[in-house]
Design a protein that fits this description.
Layout: H1 3-11, H2 28-43, H3 47-61, H4 81-93, H5 97-104, H6 106-115, H7 122-130, H8 136-142, H9 148-155, H10 157-160, E1 164-165, H11 166-183, E2 188-192, H12 193-196, E3 201-202, E4 205-210, H13 220-230, E5 234-240, E6 262-271, H14 298-311, E7 326-335, H15 341-349, H16 352-366, E8 368-370, E9 375-377, E10 382-384, H17 389-395
Parallel strand pairs: 4-7
Antiparallel strand pairs: 1-3, 2-4, 5-6, 6-7, 8-9, 9-10
Helix pairs in contact: 2-3, 2-4, 2-5, 6-7, 11-13
The protein binds 8-OXO-2'-deoxyguanosine-5'-triphosphate and manganese (II) ion (2 copies).
Length: about 400
């Protein structure tokens, strides 16, 4: 082998958690192609293939230069035969036939449209697809019984498929901050998920809430949600209580990768600037942190009008034609005990692949089990404490990767 090849093996480690993966990188044409195949695999119950495509894409995202020829890939990890075929075709022809066929296939388009409905997962989408339901409109006409989440998902389909901006995320943050400080002074909120990794847009906004006095955070979510509901900020919410303590005398491990924090999947009603009223707390904000009906101004009437029109609106009609006075935004809230905060922070900052790679590294390279609650060392047979993300990386024998480098 050429000396260069060995050098690359040494330079590019195979776990995504051993590398810095920036948001903006040099190989988007290739990673876009691989992401389509990953998405398609995930939508058609091929999780293993999905992960393989995601790992290959993550590897390319971490490279400091653009790949222009196959010879530059020599010695790089994470690139299986299938991925190499795809990359070769894109490098030579500009596109890959498998990717284009997938992108245009009726199945892929339908499954994407259906899983784009909040509350609809890949399995449900696939079942509906085989019944001939290909779009949200088809679903609405079908008369299927939908759960609360799916009903909200249909109702706010357009809004929820429009990316959330950083400014909107910050506006939501101010609302959550107010809610939290009203119901539990001293509680702290942290922006997590994609926005913490430096993304400019997201499909939702994620927050982690804790309190320095351990125990004070118990039952906090219910109070926060009640406050938000009383102020009419919520269009939908489903709160799951903490199951960590209860399950201590039950099975030793959670049934899945899902963690056991108090959490809330919600849809916020976010007021948008309409030129009529500025906010009181921040005159530069484009968004009101006040609920729409706390001021008996003309805007209240308009908002009510929008509501009733939306209720009778057809799915798939652009909501932008209604009004600009508010929009629906998906928000995830998680409450963690203070002693688990660093693990929760690391576990909820993502990306999903980065998290998966961290856990895989822990198990296979360190004989440890990492969760959003703890780190367990199987050899020492003990739980390892950590007060920061930096400490967790150190315990795992990894160099620290800041949130902006976790965009795998
Ligand atoms: P996006 O919203 O901009 O699309 O990207 P994101 O913020 O990275 O994705 P996300 O779907 O909002 O997920 C944020 C992080 O939260 C991600 O790393 C995965 C993690 N996460 C869940 N569900 C769960 C869960 O049940 N347990 C744990 N520990 N983490 C979870 O989404
Ligand atoms: Mn998110
Ligand atoms: Mn989320």
């Amino acid at each position: 082998a050429e000396p260069g090849a060995e050098l690359q093996v040494a330079l590019v480690p195979s776990y995504a958690c051993q590398r810095h993966t920036p948001l903006l990188h040099h190989n988007t044409v290739l990673t876009d192609a691989l992401s389509i195949l990953a998405e398609n695999a995930e939508l058609t119950d091929n999780e293993g293939r999905g992960v393989a495509f995601r790992r290959a894409a993550a590897l390319l995202k971490s490279l400091p230069h653009e790949i222009r020829g196959m010879e530059q890939l020599k010695g790089l990890p994470c690139l299986g035969d299938h991925c190499l075929r795809v990359i070769k075709e894109v490098l030579e022809d500009g596109t890959c036939s498998e990717v284009e066929t997938t992108r245009q296939s009726g199945q892929f388009t339908a499954l994407k449209a259906l899983t784009g409905i909040f509350g609809v997962g890949a399995k449900t989408a696939d079942r509906w697809f085989r019944e001939g339901i290909h779009t949200p409109s088809d679903l609405q006409r079908s008369g299927h019984t939908l759960n609360r989440a799916q009903q909200a998902g249909l109702q706010y389909y357009d809004d929820l498929n429009r990316p959330v901006t950083k400014a909107e995320a910050d506006a939501i943050g101010r609302i959550v901050e107010r809610a939290v400080s009203e119901v539990l002074p001293g509680a702290e909120i942290t922006l997590i998920g994609g926005f913490r990794r430096g993304k400019n847009t997201g499909h939702d906004v994620d927050f982690l809430i804790t309190h320095p006095d351990e125990g004070k955070e118990e039952g906090l979510m219910v109070k926060v949600v009640s406050w938000l509901e009383a102020q009419d900020f919520l269009l939908y919410q489903k709160t799951t209580r903490n199951s960590y303590l209860e399950s201590k005398d039950g099975p030793a491990r959670p049934p899945s990768n899902m963690d056991r924090f108090e959490r809330c999947f919600s849809i916020f009603r976010l007021s948008t600037h309409n030129g009529v009223r500025m906010t009181e707390t921040d005159p530069h904000s484009h968004f009101s942190v006040h609920p729409h009906d706390s001021h008996p101004t003309p805007q209240t009437c308009r908002t009510v009008d929008v509501l009733s029109r939306e209720d009778s609106s057809e799915i798939g009609q652009p909501q932008s034609s209604h009004s600009q006075s508010w929009r629906a935004v998906r928000v995830d809230l998680v409450v963690s005990p203070y002693s688990q905060f660093s693990f929760a922070l690391l576990g909820w900052t993502g990306s999903k692949l980065f998290e998966r790679e961290l856990r895989r590294w822990a198990v296979h390279e360190k004989a440890m089990t990492l969760s959003s609650h703890t780190l367990y060392d199987s050899k020492q047979r003990q739980y390892l404490r950590a007060n920061s993300e930096e400490e967790i990386f150190a315990l795992l024998g990894l160099e620290y990767v800041p949130p902006c480098g976790r965009n795998a």
